[in-house]
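Students often ask why we bother encoding 3D structure as a string. The short answer is that it lets us treat folding as translation between two languages. Here is a chain of 229 residues written in the first language.
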Amino acid sequence: MDVYQHWSGVRDKHKNLVIGLGNFDGMHIGHQELISQLVCLAQEVKCTPAVMTFDPHPLAVLRPDECPPILLTKESKRRIIAKLGAQVLITIPFSQGFACMTPEEFAVKILHQELGVKGVVVGYNYTFGYMGRGTAALMKKMSNFLGFQIVIIPPVKVQGLTVSSTLIRGLLESGEVKKAAKYLGFYPFVEGTVVEEKRGGDLFCPIVSLKIDSEILVPAVGVYLARVF
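And here it is in the second language, the structure alphabet:
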């Protein structure tokens, strides 16, 4: 998978893109469905499937006090996106300047003029542009005169609940790891650097301590069955 930190230059190598838009925090089954539909559309119209997301999380720039902990590291997110079949990942550095771009500017200047997209895939609740004024419905309307196809993914539900990163965070903060896995599509995991390793000790088993990024959400304090790599 080709990874870019900006949209500039992407079109030089990838002239026919179908692009999935979103924050993709957690890469839960809703995100997986979106990328699956993205890959299907790209195959149908003979284009390259691409994903565009942001770093850092927009709330970290706009309202830092309200920014939630993230569910995956950037590296983990990239691996999952690539595994799902995306061939291009564009990670936009989110800034106050970028946040001031209107929805129309984003669609016309970036998607149409800079990237020349042939198709766009978004979730039903996707927002974009200044103060989130752009919606999936507006993107659909703009696709009519900008000349690209659009697919809007409806809510993905499990046992009657709409899958979302917010729901998953709540479950992890409550220690309900097994239940969170139903919405993630995989068991939650954390990654970090080993800072201490003990053999034996009071627990009579090997102990490994990890240094984990402070932005990553760790499940509630407790004892969990885990697989270690």
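Translate back mentally: The first strand starts at residue 2 and ends at 4. Keep this in mind for the problem set.
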